[in-house]
Structure to design on (406 residues):
């Protein structure tokens, strides 16, 4: 396996290497410093893998794969636990789509609650989603976790399963190179996952205050749990729950989108090509014969033959990919294009005219509220894909015709 695509990034004050697939894409100084901070921790290693969509994150860098030995950093997983992508190919073709795509977008927005706050929750949960929630056992599992951690709330579980949320989450109708119609969406464990992540990050900071460290911790956001501690096991259980909830959330949303499409479009079937993958999570894996806890924050598992999704932005292409199982990246690839502007910077620098021009070919929101998600806020997806040709093989290139944002 050739390793010529990655660069060894400068890691001052640490013997843990940082391998970056960043050729031809920007790496901001703050993100690089954040990577160095993680590499300085004695339980991190044998190296950190950096994906081409890398950018500054809260505590840990988005677009990073961080293996650890005997410890977990909750902030490295983040608060959108289990966030990921789902996509399915249909038997529909471009000619089957209506001329007025605005009606299709409105129909999807009515069928799937979108946005943050109460407006993005179910007013009345559809029977199919209620049945899914009951049969999954997710409510009972979370109640068992709450019995040990009373501050974790359960009131959002039923209101938010099958809902999109806001920010960079989306639902898209896309066409591939053969004009086949795909449905693709991006969301995670919603408010409950956020509460779980926030709660355990705070608990890790509390534990840090009681620890006697034999090393310097450069950032309190890198507070951790050690294997063997009760909070370590509780956190692993809670993360596993959030990942399951996120997967069910995407499946429920996909069912609702397809339901709306069946009302408005000609009869169609689903083809075998379907993907549902996380990009914010931690799990135990074996690499080079060693058992490691691998945290992917804004990174997707790309084992040999494994299918994944790498989205662009509101106005650019997305990709269905197959992993090449590159061991240097811990069998991982990027989770998207990655931001080049913070949300604040995007709102200050991108005009509404620029946003409308960049999304002119897409039926989507054109208002100021989505400026921070405009294509100019993101890296070039073409450059990102070019930087990771030894990590994934492109199977399909998708161009969106409808984009729903919260």
């Amino acid at each position: 396996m050739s390793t010529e695509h990655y660069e060894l990034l400068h890691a001052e004050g640490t013997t843990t290497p940082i391998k970056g697939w960043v050729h031809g894409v920007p790496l901001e100084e703050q993100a690089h410093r954040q990577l160095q901070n993680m590499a300085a921790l004695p339980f991190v290693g044998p190296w950190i893998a950096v994906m081409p969509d890398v950018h500054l994150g809260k505590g840990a860098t988005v677009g990073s794969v961080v293996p650890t030995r005997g410890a977990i950093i909750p902030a490295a997983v983040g608060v959108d636990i289990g966030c990921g992508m789902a996509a399915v190919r249909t038997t529909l073709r471009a000619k089957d789509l209506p001329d007025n795509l605005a009606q299709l977008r409105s129909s999807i927005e009515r069928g799937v609650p979108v946005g943050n706050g109460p407006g993005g929750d179910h007013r009345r949960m559809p029977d199919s989603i209620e049945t899914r929630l009951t049969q999954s056992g997710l409510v009972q599992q979370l109640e068992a976790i709450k019995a040990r951690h009373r501050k974790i709330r359960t009131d959002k579980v039923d209101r938010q399963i099958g809902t999109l949320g806001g920010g960079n989450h989306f639902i898209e109708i896309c066409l591939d190179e053969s004009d086949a119609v795909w449905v693709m969406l991006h969301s995670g464990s919603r408010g409950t996952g956020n509460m779980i992540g926030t709660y355990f990050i705070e608990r890790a900071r509390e534990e840090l205050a009681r620890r006697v460290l034999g090393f310097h911790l450069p950032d309190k956001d890198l507070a951790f749990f050690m294997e063997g501690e009760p909070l370590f096991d509780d956190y692993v259980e809670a993360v596993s729950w959030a990942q399951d909830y996120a997967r069910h959330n995407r499946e429920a949303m996909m069912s609702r989108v397809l339901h709306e499409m069946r009302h408005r479009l000609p009869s169609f079937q689903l083809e075998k090509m379907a993907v549902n993958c996380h990009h914010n999570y931690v799990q135990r894996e074996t690499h080079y014969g060693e058992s490691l806890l691998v945290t992917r924050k804004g990174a997707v598992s790309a084992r040999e033959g494994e299918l994944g999704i790498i989205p662009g932005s509101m106005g650019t292409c997305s990709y269905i990919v197959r992993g090449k199982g590159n061991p240097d990246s811990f069998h991982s690839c990027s989770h998207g294009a990655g931001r080049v502007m913070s949300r604040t910077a995007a709102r200050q620098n991108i005009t509404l005219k620029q946003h409308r021009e960049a999304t002119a070919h897409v039926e989507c929101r054109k208002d100021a509220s989505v400026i921070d998600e405009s294509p100019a806020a993101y890296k070039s997806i073409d450059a990102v894909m070019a930087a990771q040709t030894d990590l994934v093989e492109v199977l399909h290139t998708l161009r969106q015709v409808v984009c729903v944002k919260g």
Remarks:
- The chain has one domain: 7-340+378-405.
- The domain at 7-340+378-405 is CATH 3.90.1860.10 (tRNA-splicing ligase RtcB).
